[in-house]
Amino acid sequence: MVSRFRDALNSGKFVITSEVAPPKGTNIDKMLHHIELLKDKVDAINVTDHQSSVMRFPSLGGCLAIKEQGGEPILQMTCRDRNRLALQAELLLAHTRGINNVLCLTGDAVPVGDHKEAKGVFDLDSVQLLSAIRSMESGQDMGGNSLDGSVEFCAGAIVTPEAQPIEPQLIKFEKKVEAGAEFFQTQAIYDLENFSQFMHCARQFPVKILAGIVLLSSARMAKYMNENVPGIFVPQDLIDELAGVAKEEMLAKGIEIAGRMIATLKRDAICDGVHIMAIAKEEVVPDILAAAGL
Amino acid sequence: MKSITRQKSLEEIAEQLANLDHVFIVGCGTCTTMTKTGGIDQVVEMKDRLLEIDKRVSGWTVIPIACDEMTEAAMKENSRAIENANCVLVMTCALGVHRISTYIDRPVVPALDTLFIAVEETPGYFREVCAQCGQCILGETAGICPITNCHKGLVNGPCGGTNNGKCEVDKEKDCAWTLIYEGLKAQGRLDLMRKYYPPRNHHVVLRPRTIKIE
Lengths: 294, 214
Description:
The complex is a heterodimer of chains A (about 290) and B (about 210).
Chain A lengths: L3 H8 L3 E6 L8 H10 L5 E4 L11 H10 L4 E6 L5 H13 L4 E5 L20 H12 L16 E6 L7 H13 L3 E6 L3 H11 L5 E7 L4 H10 L7 H8 L6 H18 L5 E5 L7 H7 L3
Parallel strand pairs in A: 1-2, 1-8, 2-3, 3-4, 4-5, 5-6, 6-7, 7-8
Chain B lengths: L1 E6 L2 H7 L5 E7 L2 H4 L5 H13 L3 E8 L7 H7 L1 H5 L3 E5 L2 H10 L4 E3 L1 E11 L2 E4 L17 H4 L16 E2 L2 E5 L1 H12 L27
Parallel strand pairs in B: 2-3, 2-4, 4-5
Antiparallel strand pairs in B: 1-6, 6-7, 8-9
C-alpha cells in the first residue's frame, strides 16, 4: 500500500487536509466541484460520514469519487450506523479500491440528526475500531478468522483539545494511540495558547497532530458554536474582530483569521499540520491557504 | 426496583378495543400504583373514560403484585366478571400483562407502555440504572454504568459530544463518563479509565432469554 497521506505525515512537512460533505441526494456535482478545487491544494481530503447524524450520500462513495479524480481520500468512519460486520466489510472494499486512509470516529448521537427514531448501533467505539483495523492488518477479522487478503490503512482519530474537563479526553487520546492511531485531526481550536498546552501533552506520543481549523463565517456563527457545539470555544476577541467589520466583509475576515492561525501554527511549529473545515463554504479553502501564505 | 410505565393515549386504547365492547380492567398495587399509571385512582378514571366512549365495564380489580403467581388467584376470584367481558384491559407493566395472559383465555389489551426498570432516587424521581447487559463493570467505573448512563453505551471513555459534564443529546443529562472520571479520581483509581475494553458480547444469554434455577 502506498498512502500518499502517510508519506506526507512522515515527510516532516506541514500537512494540510480539508474535507468535503456528500450531498443529501444523488446530485454530486457540488461535491465533485469541491474535490476538483481541493485535490491538488491539500495532502488529503476527508469525506464526512452522515455528518451530525443527517442521512447523506455515503463517505465511501465520496472517497471513490476522490480516487477517480486523482485525489487522496480519508474515509471517515463512524460506529453509529454499522455493526462490526458492516464496518469490516467496508474496510475490505475500501482497501481494494485504493482508499488507504481511515479516520475512526464514534459518531454523533442519532437524536441530534434527521432520523431521530433510528437505532444507534455503537457496536464498536472509535478505540475498538482502531484496534479492529490493526487486527485486520495482521490478517484476522474480529471473529478471529483468517482473511483471504488483508488490509492496510493509515488510521487516525480525533481529539477535542478544548473539552472541559480535559483529562478524560486526554486519557481517551492515549487509548486511541495505544489502539493504533497514527494521526489525529482535532476538533476546532481557536485559543492557540490552550492548544499549545494540549500539544505539550500530545508531543509525548509518536503521532501526528493536525489542528482543526473551522472557518468562522460570521460573529453569529461563532456565538452559535460557543453555545451549541460541544468542545468548541471561540474567544471573545475573535468574535469582536468579526463583529467589527461590515456584514458583507465578515467572511473575508473569517478567512483572514483562519489564515493567520494556520500561519502561526506553522511558523511556531506548534503541530504537524492543519485540517481545514470550511463547513458549507468549501470553495474558499484555497483563499484560506493563500491567506496563510501556503 | 420499579417497572416504569406510561399510559397509552385513549385513541390508541380505543383502537385496540375495536369490536371489544365489554371490558374488565386490571391494575397493579405495586409499580403502576407508585408511578400513578395503574393504581386504584387511574383504574377508576379509565373505567369512566371507557364508559364515555360507549364501552361497558364488567368490573375491575387492582392486584397487589400483578407479576407474581398470586395473580392466578386474583383472576379466579374475578372469573365471573371476566367471563362477562370480551377482553381484559391491563394497567400493569408488561410483566403483569404476560402473567395475566397465562391465566385467562380472553384477549388481553395493555393500556400502558413499559419504558424501563428504575430505582427511585428521590421521591418521584426514577432513574434507569441497569440495562441487564450481562457483563457488569460497575466495579471499575465508580459504580456508574456506562451502558445505561452513556447515551451511546460507550465503554472506553467519553465521546466528543461531552460538554462541560453534559451529554450532546440533552443539556440536562449528565455525561456518564464525566461522572465516572470524577468518581474514579475521588477513589484514586483513575488508572482504571486507561483500561481498554474490547467489543462487548451482545449475546451473553441468547434471546429469547430464559434461565432454569435448579
